[in-house]
Amino acid sequence: MMEMETSHILFAFGSAGKAHMRDSIKVLILGDDAFCHKMRLLLNAAEDITVVGEINDRQQALALIRENYPDVILLGINASRADCLQIVGEIYRLFPQIKIIILDDNIEEQFALDVLRKGALGYLLKKSRSKEVISAIHSVIRGKAILSPGIAGRILDELHPLNK
Q: How far apart are CA 54 and CA 67, in angstroms?
Protein backbone atom coordinates (compact mmCIF):
# COMPACT_ATOMS: atom_id res chain seq x y z
CA MET A 1 0.00 0.00 0.00
CA MET A 2 1.16 3.51 -0.76
CA GLU A 3 1.47 5.97 2.08
CA MET A 4 1.52 9.70 1.52
CA GLU A 5 4.38 11.73 2.95
CA THR A 6 3.46 14.55 5.25
CA SER A 7 4.64 18.00 4.36
CA HIS A 8 4.12 21.56 5.46
CA ILE A 9 0.68 22.84 4.62
CA LEU A 10 0.47 26.43 3.48
CA PHE A 11 -2.70 28.46 3.50
CA ALA A 12 -3.80 31.19 1.13
CA PHE A 13 -6.98 33.20 1.18
CA GLY A 14 -9.18 32.89 -1.87
CA SER A 15 -11.57 35.43 -3.28
CA ALA A 16 -14.35 34.22 -0.98
CA GLY A 17 -12.19 34.93 2.08
CA LYS A 18 -12.12 31.23 2.97
CA ALA A 19 -8.74 29.74 3.79
CA HIS A 20 -7.64 27.23 1.16
CA MET A 21 -4.70 24.89 1.43
CA ARG A 22 -2.17 25.47 -1.28
CA ASP A 23 -1.27 21.77 -1.06
CA SER A 24 -4.89 20.67 -1.07
CA ILE A 25 -6.14 17.44 -2.61
CA LYS A 26 -6.97 18.11 -6.25
CA VAL A 27 -10.16 16.38 -7.42
CA LEU A 28 -11.50 16.02 -10.95
CA ILE A 29 -15.18 15.14 -11.33
CA LEU A 30 -16.19 13.01 -14.31
CA GLY A 31 -19.89 12.39 -14.91
CA ASP A 32 -23.10 13.97 -16.12
CA ASP A 33 -23.92 17.61 -15.30
CA ALA A 34 -26.15 16.76 -12.32
CA PHE A 35 -23.48 14.51 -10.79
CA CYS A 36 -20.73 17.10 -11.30
CA HIS A 37 -22.87 19.84 -9.74
CA LYS A 38 -23.80 17.66 -6.73
CA MET A 39 -20.18 16.62 -6.12
CA ARG A 40 -18.88 20.18 -6.41
CA LEU A 41 -21.41 21.39 -3.82
CA LEU A 42 -20.60 18.46 -1.57
CA LEU A 43 -16.83 19.03 -1.78
CA ASN A 44 -17.07 22.78 -1.15
CA ALA A 45 -17.43 21.93 2.55
CA ALA A 46 -13.92 20.43 2.67
CA GLU A 47 -11.20 23.05 3.08
CA ASP A 48 -8.43 20.65 2.03
CA ILE A 49 -10.05 19.61 -1.26
CA THR A 50 -10.02 21.65 -4.46
CA VAL A 51 -12.14 20.73 -7.48
CA VAL A 52 -9.83 21.29 -10.46
CA GLY A 53 -12.35 20.39 -13.14
CA GLU A 54 -15.66 18.87 -14.12
CA ILE A 55 -16.30 17.03 -17.35
CA ASN A 56 -19.03 14.87 -18.79
CA ASP A 57 -17.24 13.82 -21.96
CA ARG A 58 -15.14 10.73 -21.32
CA GLN A 59 -13.32 11.27 -24.63
CA GLN A 60 -12.02 14.65 -23.47
CA ALA A 61 -11.33 13.47 -19.93
CA LEU A 62 -7.75 12.37 -20.61
CA ALA A 63 -6.82 15.82 -21.91
CA LEU A 64 -8.31 17.45 -18.80
CA ILE A 65 -6.47 14.96 -16.59
CA ARG A 66 -3.17 15.80 -18.30
CA GLU A 67 -3.86 19.52 -17.95
CA ASN A 68 -4.88 19.49 -14.27
CA TYR A 69 -3.19 16.32 -12.99
CA PRO A 70 -5.62 15.62 -10.15
CA ASP A 71 -4.86 13.50 -7.09
CA VAL A 72 -8.32 11.90 -7.17
CA ILE A 73 -10.98 11.37 -9.83
CA LEU A 74 -14.62 10.97 -8.84
CA LEU A 75 -16.28 9.00 -11.63
CA GLY A 76 -20.07 8.93 -11.70
CA ILE A 77 -21.58 5.92 -13.46
CA ASN A 78 -24.48 6.75 -15.76
CA ALA A 79 -25.01 4.32 -18.56
CA SER A 80 -22.47 2.05 -20.14
CA ARG A 81 -20.55 -0.02 -17.64
CA ALA A 82 -18.25 -1.17 -20.45
CA ASP A 83 -17.31 2.47 -21.14
CA CYS A 84 -16.62 2.95 -17.45
CA LEU A 85 -14.36 -0.11 -17.31
CA GLN A 86 -12.52 1.16 -20.37
CA ILE A 87 -11.92 4.69 -19.03
CA VAL A 88 -10.88 3.42 -15.58
CA GLY A 89 -8.42 1.01 -17.19
CA GLU A 90 -7.04 3.72 -19.44
CA ILE A 91 -6.68 6.28 -16.65
CA TYR A 92 -4.96 3.72 -14.42
CA ARG A 93 -2.61 2.64 -17.21
CA LEU A 94 -1.61 6.21 -18.08
CA PHE A 95 -1.73 7.73 -14.58
CA PRO A 96 -1.34 4.91 -12.00
CA GLN A 97 -0.74 7.35 -9.14
CA ILE A 98 -4.14 9.05 -9.59
CA LYS A 99 -6.75 7.56 -7.26
CA ILE A 100 -10.13 6.73 -8.81
CA ILE A 101 -13.38 6.54 -6.83
CA ILE A 102 -16.48 5.20 -8.57
CA LEU A 103 -19.90 6.48 -7.53
CA ASP A 104 -22.81 4.34 -8.71
CA ASP A 105 -26.60 4.42 -8.35
CA ASN A 106 -26.85 0.71 -7.61
CA ILE A 107 -24.75 -1.96 -6.00
CA GLU A 108 -23.60 -4.49 -8.56
CA GLU A 109 -21.05 -6.88 -7.10
CA GLN A 110 -19.54 -8.12 -10.36
CA PHE A 111 -19.16 -4.62 -11.78
CA ALA A 112 -17.61 -3.42 -8.53
CA LEU A 113 -15.08 -6.25 -8.65
CA ASP A 114 -14.33 -5.56 -12.31
CA VAL A 115 -13.80 -1.82 -11.82
CA LEU A 116 -11.57 -2.42 -8.78
CA ARG A 117 -9.51 -4.87 -10.83
CA LYS A 118 -9.13 -2.19 -13.54
CA GLY A 119 -7.60 0.23 -11.05
CA ALA A 120 -10.31 2.04 -9.09
CA LEU A 121 -9.54 2.32 -5.39
CA GLY A 122 -13.03 3.18 -4.20
CA TYR A 123 -16.64 2.23 -4.91
CA LEU A 124 -19.44 4.25 -3.31
CA LEU A 125 -23.10 4.82 -3.87
CA LYS A 126 -24.05 8.19 -5.35
CA LYS A 127 -26.41 8.70 -2.43
CA SER A 128 -23.46 8.63 0.00
CA ARG A 129 -23.39 11.53 2.45
CA SER A 130 -20.83 14.27 2.00
CA LYS A 131 -18.89 13.08 5.05
CA GLU A 132 -18.52 9.62 3.46
CA VAL A 133 -17.30 10.99 0.12
CA ILE A 134 -14.81 13.35 1.77
CA SER A 135 -13.59 10.54 4.03
CA ALA A 136 -13.21 8.26 1.00
CA ILE A 137 -11.06 10.88 -0.75
CA HIS A 138 -8.80 11.11 2.30
CA SER A 139 -8.60 7.30 2.52
CA VAL A 140 -7.59 6.74 -1.10
CA ILE A 141 -4.95 9.49 -0.83
CA ARG A 142 -3.44 7.40 1.98
CA GLY A 143 -3.48 4.37 -0.35
CA LYS A 144 -6.43 2.65 1.31
CA ALA A 145 -9.28 1.13 -0.67
CA ILE A 146 -12.78 2.23 0.27
CA LEU A 147 -16.14 0.56 -0.33
CA SER A 148 -19.69 1.53 0.60
CA PRO A 149 -20.81 -0.58 3.54
CA GLY A 150 -23.60 -2.07 1.43
CA ILE A 151 -21.14 -3.46 -1.09
CA ALA A 152 -18.20 -4.41 1.16
CA GLY A 153 -19.90 -7.43 2.70
CA ARG A 154 -21.24 -8.62 -0.63
CA ILE A 155 -17.81 -8.41 -2.28
CA LEU A 156 -16.16 -10.22 0.62
CA ASP A 157 -18.81 -12.94 0.33
CA GLU A 158 -18.08 -13.19 -3.39
CA LEU A 159 -14.32 -13.49 -2.82
CA HIS A 160 -14.41 -15.88 0.13
CA PRO A 161 -13.32 -19.42 -0.87
CA LEU A 162 -16.21 -21.09 1.00
CA ASN A 163 -18.69 -19.30 -1.25
CA LYS A 164 -17.20 -20.58 -4.49
A: 12
